[in-house]
């Protein structure tokens, strides 16, 4: 009798917890997995102690270590994101580790390192050098990278788009087209992939009128032509028929329920020359800045692009260089592991190709590939990036637990799935504030680290300000490692003056 009563009380307690988990909106995991989801949070709480004795260190897990994820989670929740006691990095021995060299004295005014609202505009006007009608200076040098509705749920896209609006960043649609979930106030970079989803004819070819209709229907600020992405370069995307719901089919302009395979290459152009004609056509017809996104493999493409741009009559407004360490919804292992160059190597080669011809002030350089962590972002800026895009870090900010099931449609946090039961758990309103908080914190940390280097903006950090450990007890500057010549990675004098004036003008409101 006594045992039965205890059992009944326990069952009632579990029912109360389950009911509370199901209605609360803070944690998607608990909404989707009531009661048992608490085990994950309990393990996370005692994780450091457990791992110290039996499992892995805080630095070991991949793609993002526990320390990196903890920093993003804490930043997104506006909790204490500091670390206590000292670094866990074996500082003299971790090959490839970057060391930022602080300065004792600074030449000019420095940003307020503690203001989460401090602006971090792009150092360059997007589309300015080529005189595009709708050229503009992006208000945020940190933006949300391409991830399609289809690979991510509608709830996740909504959270990211609202987060972008709150943080004043741009949100890239990914190659799956512009969905209703992208229409929540955030500025849009419209991506066009080889499938031309949302702007295609029935046979899959590109349709300019449809593109113009899409552009006119939303706050599209720029167009990005996707040539490839770091995690699966040279390979078209594939959305299995089971995931091609009628909603996705309508947005993409494809039949529902059938596998949606993108070709590996574009049909609207076939070489660099015709690609530049296509870029100029889109820019002329829409007035928008137009750029390309690509992973870096053979360099002939970039050399030809830079050479043709040197003539001055045609050109891209930006290049987005994606590193092989970048993420994907789904990719064959060989492509994710072994095709295309990692970010630092790939980016520095591309930058150098334009720098050799004195063209670096003529376009905006954007980087992606685990750059949503301040130390990696600082390296990117030092190498010459003007802006960075973040994808998986933004997913972590809305609750991704790095379970790496994005390709299975079984994402436990409702982010990378179309399963209504799982997406129900993700509350876009509360998650959007987390994305915004994370993006603001990343910008703030970048300003902090710039201040430590004695400059007012990460665009002023140079390739001599950071060293890379290239063996035990030995480090070389980024300039030395990546073969940068004098002035490479830096803004030209006119752009530097403009940025300094812009930051000075923003000073009183900080
Ligand atoms: C779920 C998911 C979907 C993605 N979809 C696209 C896409 O549609 N187009 C694209 O160019 N890149 C896509 N990417 C790549 C990202 O935009 C980004 O370039 C890459 O993940 C590197 O950034 P990260 O390291 O911050 O994640 C996707 C990445 C993820 C994780
Ligand atoms: S499947 Fe795992 S790694 Fe992918 S989004 Fe969901 S929680 Fe994150």
Describe it for me?
Belongs to the glutamate synthase family. GO terms for molecular function: oxidoreductase activity. This is FMN-binding glutamate synthase family protein. It contains 17 helices and 13 strands. By secondary structure, the protein is of the alpha/beta class. The strands form three sheets. An eight-stranded parallel sheet has the order 2-11-10-9-8-5-4-3. β10 (364-368), α12 and β11 (387-390) form a beta-alpha-beta unit. α4 (66-76) crosses α15 (428-453) and α5 (154-167) crosses α15 (428-453). The mean pLDDT is 92. Bound molecules: flavin mononucleotide and iron/sulfur cluster (SF4). The site of flavin mononucleotide (FMN) has 27 residues, from α13. Residues 145-148, 151-152, 174-175, 191, 226, 229, 293, 322, 326-329, 368-370, 372, 390-393, 406, 416 line the site of flavin mononucleotide.
State the end-to-end CA separation. Answer: 68 Å
Question: In CATH, what is the class of the largest domain?
Answer: Alpha Beta
The parts where pLDDT drops under 50 for at least 5 residues are none
Q: Tell me roughly what share of residues is in helical segments.
A: 25-40%
The overall number of domains is: 2
Which cofactor or ligand species appear? flavin mononucleotide, iron/sulfur cluster
Classify the beta-strand content into a percent band: 5-15%
Strand order within the widest beta sheet: 2-11-10-9-8-5-4-3
- Overall number of strands: 13
What is the helix tally?
17
Fill in the CATH topology of the largest domain.
TIM Barrel
The SSE order reads HHHHEEHEEHEEHEHEHEHHEHEHHHEEHH
Average residue-wise pLDDT: 92
CATH architecture group name of the largest domain: Alpha-Beta Barrel
Largest sheet: 8 strands, parallel
Q: Specify the structural class.
A: alpha/beta
What is the alpha-carbon Rg in Å? 23 Å
General shape: globular
CATH homologous superfamily (4th level) name of the largest domain: Aldolase class I
Domain Glutamate synthase: 139-455
Keywords: Oxidoreductase
Family: Belongs to the glutamate synthase family.
Enzyme class: oxidoreductase
């Amino acid at each position: 009798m006594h045992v039965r009563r205890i059992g009944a009380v326990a069952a009632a307690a579990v029912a109360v917890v389950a009911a509370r988990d199901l209605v609360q909106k803070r944690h998607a995991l608990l909404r989707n997995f009531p009661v048992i989801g608490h085990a994950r949070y309990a393990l996370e709480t005692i994780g450091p102690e457990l791992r110290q004795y039996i499992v892995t260190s805080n630095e070991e897990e991949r793609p993002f270590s526990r320390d990196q994820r903890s920093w993003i989670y804490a930043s997104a929740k506006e909790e204490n994101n500091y670390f206590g006691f000292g670094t866990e990095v074996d500082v003299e021995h971790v090959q490839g580790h970057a060391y930022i060299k602080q300065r004792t004295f600074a030449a000019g005014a420095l940003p307020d390192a503690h203001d989460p609202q401090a602006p971090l505009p792009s150092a360059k006007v997007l589309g300015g050098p080529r005189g595009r009608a709708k050229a503009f200076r992006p208000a945020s040098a940190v933006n949300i990278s391409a991830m399609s509705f289809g690979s991510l749920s509608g709830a996740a896209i909504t959270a990211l788009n609202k987060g972008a609006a709150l943080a004043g960043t741009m949100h890239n649609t990914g190659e799956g087209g512009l969905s209703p979930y992208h229409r929540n106030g955030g500025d849009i970079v419209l991506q066009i992939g080889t499938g031309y989803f949302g702007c295609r004819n029935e046979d899959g070819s590109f349709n300019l009128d449809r593109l113009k209709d899409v552009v006119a229907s939303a706050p599209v600020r720029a167009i990005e032509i996707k040539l490839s992405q770091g995690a699966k370069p040279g390979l078209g995307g594939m959305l299995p028929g089971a995931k091609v719901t009628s909603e996705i089919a309508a947005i993409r302009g494809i039949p529902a329920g059938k596998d949606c395979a993108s070709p590996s290459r574009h049909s609207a152009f076939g070489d660099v020359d015709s690609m530049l004609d296509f870029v100029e056509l889109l820019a002329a017809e829409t007035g928008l800045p137009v750029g390309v996104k690509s992973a870096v493999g053979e360099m002939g493409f970039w050399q030809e692009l830079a050479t043709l741009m040197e003539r001055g009559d045609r050109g891209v407004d930006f290049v987005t260089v994606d590193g092989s360490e970048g993420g994907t919804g789904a990719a064959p292992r060989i492509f994710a592991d072994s095709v295309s160059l990692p970010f630092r190597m790939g980016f520095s080669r591309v930058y150098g190709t334009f720098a050799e011809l004195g063209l670096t002030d003529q376009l905006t350089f954007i980087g992606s590939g685990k750059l949503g962590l301040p130390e990696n972002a600082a390296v990117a800026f030092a190498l010459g990036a003007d802006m960075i895009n973040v994808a998986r870090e933004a997913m972590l900010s809305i609750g991704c637990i790095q379970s790496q099931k994005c390709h299975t449609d079984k994402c436990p946090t409702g982010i990378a799935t179309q399963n209504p039961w799982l997406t129900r758990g993700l509350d876009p309103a509360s998650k959007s504030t987390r994305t915004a908080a994370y993006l603001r914190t990343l910008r703030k940390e970048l300003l902090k680290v710039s201040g430590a280097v004695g400059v007012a903006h990460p665009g002023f950090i140079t390739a001599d300000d950071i060293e890379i450990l290239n063996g035990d007890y030995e480090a070389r500057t980024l300039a030395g490692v990546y073969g940068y010549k004098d002035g490479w990675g830096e803004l030209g004098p006119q752009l530097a003056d403009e940025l300094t004036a812009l930051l000075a003008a923003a000073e009183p409101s900080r």
